[in-house]
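Shape matters. As here.
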Amino acid sequence: MAKNRRVRAAREPVTAEVTGGRAELRPDRDRPRGWTLLIDGAPQSFVDLDDPAYLDFSYQRRLGHIADLAAPPGKPLRVLHLGGGALTLARYVAATRPRSTQQVVEIDAPLVQFVREQLPLDSGARIKVRGGDARAGLAKVPDGWADLIIADVFSGARTPAHLTSTEFVTEAARALAPGGWYAANLADGPPLAFVRAQIATVGAVFGELCLTAAPPVLRGKRFGNAVLLAADGPLPVAELTRRAATDPETGRVEHGRALRDFAGGAAPVTDATAVASPAPPPGTFDR
């Protein structure tokens, strides 16, 4: 209870030096216990301790839709989160699917400590946070354990190269249960070469793909996030399309022939050819 009282009382920004840079928790003006996590000024995630089912960032809403559709409503899931941040998606699944079992792999141990001190997890949440590199943590997951894997890993504002290859995606597929889903948050800007290469890379491992993003991002008009979902069986494309269209930031879903055309013949990425995702252009996060 002492931690909760401290969070309620602290309505000024809270900062700490973490491995990835300077972490800041910035209070929300409209939500009494809402906080935005920033790393070196780049917004990472948002948490409302009073309403963990509330997702503020557009890409997290899209990942929330995926978690909603991964199984019948309320059914517990086994979820592996590669990348922790403020544990927003893990909190969301715990709130919307009680009794779910979740693992989070986060390399930045000081960040995890900062977040857990300032934004405590619900005592009943079955969330286990492991320190370490996402790919190394993934390798320790038993075959077929996860119903859903969410890859949302950034070093600064870039996804490390070793988390973008067919070898990495193959390892994710190994850890998925039959019928499981793999979802990745991708950040890119014009000419979207990174996203196109990731479509080819994930498509080399999984039989079904769809991509969700805001239309200006898909048209290569601005830097932003795109969520790639993959499985070996059918995906709920129609329902994802409906949900994306009604989000506060309207999204579009590409699938099938349209997605193949969008990829434009990009080649899959291997460990030998992988590069980190592009850095955001200056001013991307200015408000």
Observations:
- Residues 58-69 form the longest helix (12 residues).
- DSSP finds ten helices and twelve strands in the chain.
- Residues 161 and 275 are 4 Å apart (CA to CA).
- Confidence is low (pLDDT under 50) at residues 1-10.
